[in-house]
Amino acid sequence: MQTPTLYLVVPCYNESEIIKLSIETINKKLESLINKKAIKKKSKIIFVNDGSKDNTLDLLKQYKTKLIEIISLSTNKGHQNALLAGLNYAKDNCDIAISLDCDLQDDIDLIDKFVEKYKEGFEIVYGVRNNRKEDSFFKAYSAMAFYKIMKFLGVDIVYNHADYRLLSNRVLKCLLEFKEVNLFLRGIIPMLGFKSCKLYYKRNKRVAGESKYPFIKMLSFAIDGITSFSIKPLRILNLIGILISLFSLIIGIWALISYFIGNTISGWTSIVVPMYFLGGIQIIGLGIIGEYIGKIYKESKKRPLYFVDEIIK
Ligand code: UDP
Ligand code: MG
Asked: 313 C-alpha to center of ligand 2: Å?
């Protein structure tokens, strides 16, 4: 197999505390790969500045090397869109693209193995973390619940894999054919098919700066992921409706029997409890349906996902 051109795609948002170290570390990695002729000389690192409000962009410009290109988005669009901007840019020039976070939490030495796997014929290589010890108790468990729920709802995602992965150029082009506004990469990539494999690594703590994904953002990401990929919640809702109807049939029979027995002035509880219960279920139902309508609303407008402010080569 020919030596591939590798593009590393690194989204960053308000990462001034770590960006210098990040540039140095990733640059060194790419240099070493070029030196040992694992990848072509024209390989690059694409830093996508996702509309940072601190001086991340200035620092990127200041410490930029000749291996680095910067895409700066016009405003903050979120990690998935920033990643997509980078991948879109990479697709015309690279044979393989690897996406990674700029906080150096993902084991950078895995990149060598990613490239080896590609040379063995794999077109998608998933980086999968095999520990969650560094995460807070809460993050670890909420993440686990997320994967379990996704699996239950029939969405094929790779357990404990975030966005550290290698894609071949062919796969990249297929991926970019999806024109969804609600793009949930972790769900779409396994859908593409192609020969894939997993590589396991130990995920580290953030060296500096803090997570841009607090609980609320994670929750909204999870809801987006679920409702972009599965209509099972709607079906479950339907099922609950059917069950409640059956139950009310039984209650109806019971009421009739009570009437004939002459026991009609039964209590207040049997009215009030179902009232609140059904009220609750109806509102949840509306909420779930609303979530999907919201998705349709966004998709129908087909708004562009990001705008590029400047590209620095
Ligand atoms: N990020 C981004 N845009 C955002 C939020 C985050 O580009 O709106 C980047 C961030 O700079 C980092 C990566 O996405 O490189 C992952 O974010 P973070 O490390 O905060 O998430 P966590 O690892 O805690 O899930
Ligand atoms: Mg992180």
From this structure: 26
Q: Is 193 exposed, middle or buried (0-12, 13-18, 19+ CB in 10 A)?
A: exposed
CA 203, 29, 175, 196 torsion-angle sign? negative
Q: What is the pLDDT of residues 110-126, one digit of tens each?
A: 999 999 999 999 999 99
**Dihedrals phi, psi of 221, to nearest 5 degrees:** -60, -45
Q: What pLDDT is attached to residue 267?
A: 67
Categorise residue 37: left if φ over 0, alpha if ψ from -120 to 50, beta otherwise.
Answer: left
Strand 44-49 versus strand 6-12 pairing type: parallel
Atom of ligand 1 at shortest distance to CA of 10?
15
- Kindly report the protein residue whose alpha carbon is nearest to atom 12 of ligand 1: 101
Find the 11 Cα to ligand 2 centroid distance in Å: 11
Which residue(s) pair with 45 in the sheet?
Answer: 8, 68
Does the pTM surpass 0.85? The reply is no
Phi/psi class of residue 160: alpha, beta or left (left: φ > 0; alpha: ψ in -120 to 50)? Answer: left
pLDDT value, residue 134: 66
Structure tokens at 298: 């966004």
- Rounded (to 5) percent helix, strand, coil in the chain: 50, 15, 35
Q: What pLDDT is attached to residue 1? A: 72
Q: Which CATH number fits domain 6-230+305-312: 3.90.550.10, 3.30.830.10, 3.30.1050.10, 3.30.70.20?
A: 3.90.550.10
For ligand 2, an ion, list residues with CB under 5 A: 101, 103, 105
d(CA 300, CA 181): 9
